[in-house]
Specification:
Radius of gyration: 22 Å
Shape: globular
Number of strands: 2
Structural class: mainly alpha
């Protein structure tokens, strides 16, 4: 007799594999978890809205500006805004650039591949020539170092790629909060399926990039390039930011002789799913900027929850980071469910086995993550 029942997994994280196979997130369900995750994603959505607008502004309006002193003002420079900027009463757009540069460095996906194609290089060279048409110094520099401005153009493409990705995610998280307020979101499964539905809905959304120089439009990434939201920005983002990340200065030695940093990038485990929340707030810890930004937009119910903890505001950024990690396990669960080779309703044993192998492969990477800590 042919069986269609799959044997239980023997993986060290089998419990979470079985949850994913059942369409359940890696974060256990509880009223507190739902409240924390939705609340922090509401705040995150507001911050991502600002990050997205600025990244797209830089890509489109600061193209090859070698000294973009006022790039964080989105073209709206006033004395009042400048004073607030100097006083750090502002969104920390530096964190958005940190994420962009991490994606740029780690690469992966169709965007990374397209930036090395002859089509992109030809389009970039046309835009570079137009940008510096009346500047013999820069044109001469470009001849001496032909890869310099080309690499800057590639970086501009990552500005807009991440900006377009975060545009979708911001709207998704704000909508999640609205549904929670309306009583439609009641479990971590509801949260995860909301994110999954959003990822699927925008999966084929095109990623494009064009700049206007002296009244003429230059298409650097045309729609015909076939780059899309899910596979070419979302998946590389999860890989670069959730999993790999970069080692934080001051918490690990960059000295090659100490051998504390892996020799190969795929072995990096410094992303959001692995990071220890305790150093948040310390010098040289980039996520501190994000936690600082999110603290300004916490919904009242999440703020009250934090204020009812023993240390109240003293360790607020650490608590925000802990909550944020919980939310990222929900988001990552949605991404993995969306990428499962046989979907969430496999019919045959072969399809179930394909999903099992897929989830076990990914769970190998979760062995040293914070997956048990967020479920403690």
């Amino acid at each position: 007799m042919v069986t269609t029942v799959l044997e239980p997994s023997k993986h060290a994280l089998a419990h979470f594999i079985h949850r994913l196979e059942q369409g359940l997130p890696m974060l256990e369900d509880s009223e507190q978890n739902v409240m924390e995750v939705v609340g922090i994603l509401k705040s995150y959505g507001v911050v991502l809205d600002a990050y997205s607008k600025n990244l797209n502004y830089v890509a489109e309006s600061q193209f090859l500006n070698l000294f973009p002193f006022f790039k964080y003002f989105n073209g709206q420079l006033t004395g009042d805004r400048l004073l607030k900027h100097w006083w750090h009463d502002r969104i920390n757009f530096e964190y958005a650039e940190y994420c962009m540069k991490s994606m740029f460095w780690h690469g992966g996906g169709g965007l990374d591949a397209y930036l090395d194609t002859p089509e992109f290089i030809a389009a970039a060279k046309k835009a570079i020539a137009a940008r510096w048409r009346n500047n013999p110094l820069m044109l001469g520099l470009n001849k001496l170092f032909p890869d310099f401005l080309l690499e800057q153009t590639r970086q501009m493409a990552y500005y807009t790629g991440l900006g377009q990705f975060w545009r979708v995610m911001s709207d998704m998280f704000i909508d999640l909060s609205d549904r929670y307020d309306a009583g439609e979101i009641k479990s971590t499964t509801d949260v995860t399926h909301h994110v999954l539905a959003g990822l699927v809905a925008d999966a084929s959304r095109p990623i494009t990039y064009k700049v206007e120089i002296r009244g003429e439009v230059y298409e650097l990434i045309p729609e015909s390039a076939g780059l899309t939201f899910l596979m070419d920005t979302a998946v590389p983002y999860v890989e670069a930011i959730f999993f790999r990340g970069t080692p934080f200065a001051g918490t690990i030695s960059y000295n090659a002789q100490a051998a504390q940093v892996p020799a190969d990038q795929p072995s990096f485990t410094y992303g959001a799913l692995y990071a220890d929340p305790l150093p948040i707030g310390g010098s040289g810890i980039p996520p501190t900027l994000l936690m600082q930004d999110m603290r300004h937009f916490l919904p009242d119910y999440l703020w009250d929850f934090y204020m009812n903890t023993p240390r109240k505001e003293q360790d607020l950024r650490v608590k925000i980071c802990q909550t944020f990690q919980k939310s990222m396990f929900c988001v990552t669960s949605a991404a993995l469910m969306g990428l499962a080779p046989s979907g969430l309703e496999p019919k045959t044993l072969e399809e179930k086995q394909a999903n099992r192998e897929f989830f076990e492969h990914w769970m190998d990477r979760f062995l040293t993550s914070q997956i048990k800590a967020v479920n403690a």
